[in-house]
Amino acid sequence: MDRSIVTILCWVIVCFVLVLERFSPVSANSEGDALYALRSNLADPNNVLQSWDPTRVNPCTYLHVTCNIDNSVTRVDLGNANLSGQLVPQLGQLPNLQYLELYSNNISGRIPNEIGNLTNLVSLDLYLNSLSGPIPDTLGRLQRLRFLRLNNNSLSGQIPVTLTTISTLQVLDLSNNQLTGRIPVNGSFQFFTPNSFANNQLDPLPVFPPTPSPSQGL
Ligand SMILES: *[C@@H]1O[C@H](CO)[C@@H](O)[C@H](O)[C@H]1NC(C)=O
Ligand SMILES: *[C@@H]1O[C@H](CO)[C@@H](O)[C@H](O)[C@H]1NC(C)=O
Ligand SMILES: *[C@@H]1O[C@H](CO)[C@@H](O)[C@H](O)[C@H]1NC(C)=O
Ligand SMILES: *[C@@H]1O[C@H](CO)[C@@H](O)[C@H](O)[C@H]1NC(C)=O
Ligand SMILES: *[C@@H]1O[C@H](CO)[C@@H](O)[C@H](O)[C@H]1NC(C)=O
């Protein structure tokens, strides 16, 4: 009798733990880990990342980080923070991130392919850094992106045609890099002027004869 009660109690506890695990916000911890991985890879002479403490329950109390009501990170605001070092692939583990603002720092190295996993991203501002290597094709998966500013870095290679599929894109600045090859002209790219691409080693855009456009009044 006693034994069977103990057995039943054990099962109840096991079920309870399993249910808890299923519904606990596991993401809070992995998001803190992702941001801590970034902190660990950056030099931070002005100590702007001092509050990014991996022992906290979630990263929502970190300075320069904003979360939604479910304690999931939606913004990282670290423009003009005098940071140097490299970005980390773990940044792709912030599923609700909408604003990644890292402009005007001294960040070098590549843009991780994993940034393309941030499918809720609205703004990717990495301008005025020392980033090199290609613009990842995976950025074409950012189908909610409105602002993509990668200007004033040392990015090379071609402009991924996948970017033309981002119909939400409103502001694109790839100027002042070392990009080569053709500038796509279809999809969202039909709305961007040469200013978006200035000061690269891109092929010159073909010049079309001027045609009267009904949208000229805009
Ligand atoms: C940026 O950091 C460097 C050290 O890496 C320091 O010499 C410089 O004063 C800092 N600049 C600002 C504006 O804080
Ligand atoms: C980058 O670092 C250099 C010196 O290492 C410093 O003079 C410059 O102000 C830094 N740039 C930014 C945007 O912090
Ligand atoms: C994140 O992106 C990388 C590289 O693009 C990919 O290999 C990986 O499967 C992605 N992870 C998730 C969870 O989507
Ligand atoms: C970006 O780079 C260009 C060319 O080097 C330079 O003229 C411009 O001042 C830079 N922009 C900023 C905001 O520093
Ligand atoms: C633009 O053209 C390229 C091929 O040149 C294609 O891969 C891409 O999907 C096109 N974009 C759109 C939005 O149709």
Automatic annotation (TrEMBL):
The keyword Thylakoid does not apply. This is Leucine-rich repeat-containing N-terminal plant-type domain-containing protein. InterPro entries: LRR_dom_sf (IPR032675), LRR_N_plant-typ (IPR013210), LRR_R13L4/SHOC2-like (IPR055414). Keywords: Leucine-rich repeat, Repeat, Signal. The keyword Repeat applies. PANTHER family: SOMATIC EMBRYOGENESIS RECEPTOR KINASE 1. Residues 1-28 form the signal peptide. Residues 29-68 form the Leucine-rich repeat-containing N-terminal plant-type domain. Residues 82-176 form the Disease resistance R13L4/SHOC-2-like LRR domain.
